[in-house]
Amino acid sequence: MKKTLAILCLFALLGGCLAACGAPKPETLLAGQWKASAGSLEFKSIAFTPGAEDPRKGTVSLGMTSLVGGSYEVIPGQGKDARDMVKITYTLWLISTTRSYYFTVEGNTLNMQEENAGVTLTFTRESAVAAGTTG
Q1: Does residue 87 surpass a pLDDT of 90?
Q2: 62 FRET partner, CA 20 to 30 A, in 33, 43, 50, 107?
């Protein structure tokens, strides 16, 4: 009986470790430079550079009418049906703007859906940036 219980505990522990280590973190998936698909009116490109101390927060470069810098924060989804979110803050023409997007990354495709608008922006990965690096 003790042997069976020990084996069950071992499998439970291994299963938990594999579940925690298996999927990449959302901030890791998001890092890098992305180019907008045809038809995107908002951003022509976007680049996420994770911070060295907290990879969920970093700098963002937005290709709009001109190159605009700002910051971002990844908010991982919670629960079964939760979606990952990125909050982007930037200043354009002296006006500070914060927008929140639900996002998914599948292969080299990034989809960002604005939280309150339902508009989905699609990007293709141009290059990856390792977490904790700058530039």
Answers
A1: yes
A2: 107
